[in-house]
Amino acid sequence: MKVILICYVFLSYTIKTGEFKKIMIEERIINGKDALITDYPYQLSLLFNGLHRCGAALISNSAIVTAAHCVMHSTNCKYYSVRAGTTTVNSGGTVVGIKRIVSHSKFDKASMDYDIAIAILSRCLSFGPTVRSIKLVGAKEDLPVGTHVNATGWGTTYPGNTVLSTHLKSVELLVIAQNVCKVCYGPDVITSRMMCAGYLSGGKDTCQF
């Protein structure tokens, strides 16, 4: 199984040609299962004023990747930090400050295109069983439709719930063809910078619309 970072996943419950859904970005791990940080040691909690804001992934001992919309309200580094090496949100592990945040220059908050940001930590993290960088997919590497991927985080665990899980969750998804996503959400919603993963029958995803 290949594990990759999925910042945002688009899932359809039913395919209805001509009926497009408005995307509402929320942090969710629908029908996920409890996970341990030792299984996903790259998983981080991005903190804003000391509290969990979004998930992030460690890409080196001093750099992380997250979604640009998670830092769009303020790029003042003094408000941000990351918590590494813990299964539980808002407790345990190691908290490190952030000294620089760079969002993609083409990030569009209306369409969520180019929704990616890099942050540099104020000090390097020490690697161990609970802290390790993620293996990134190559820029020219395509994931075939049907590839199994994992999404992890502390999102809400079922539709309609607004309370985040305190325990790290993971959900296994399948890569879905872009043209299928465009039928589900409209040709102007899904861009070539996005990937789709989930189940057409519904029930498992990282975002609920």
UniProtKB/TrEMBL annotation:
<dbReference type="Pfam" id="PF00089">
    <property type="entry name" value="Trypsin"/>
</dbReference>
<dbReference type="InterPro" id="IPR001254">
    <property type="entry name" value="Trypsin_dom"/>
</dbReference>
<keyword id="KW-0325">Glycoprotein</keyword>
<dbReference type="GO" id="GO:0006508">
    <property type="term" value="P:proteolysis"/>
</dbReference>
<protein>
    <recommendedName>
        <fullName>Peptidase S1 domain-containing protein</fullName>
    </recommendedName>
</protein>
<dbReference type="GO" id="GO:0004252">
    <property type="term" value="F:serine-type endopeptidase activity"/>
</dbReference>
<dbReference type="InterPro" id="IPR009003">
    <property type="entry name" value="Peptidase_S1_PA"/>
</dbReference>
<feature type="domain" description="Peptidase S1">
    <location>
        <begin position="29"/>
        <end position="209"/>
    </location>
</feature>
<dbReference type="InterPro" id="IPR043504">
    <property type="entry name" value="Peptidase_S1_PA_chymotrypsin"/>
</dbReference>
<keyword id="KW-1015">Disulfide bond</keyword>
<dbReference type="InterPro" id="IPR018114">
    <property type="entry name" value="TRYPSIN_HIS"/>
</dbReference>
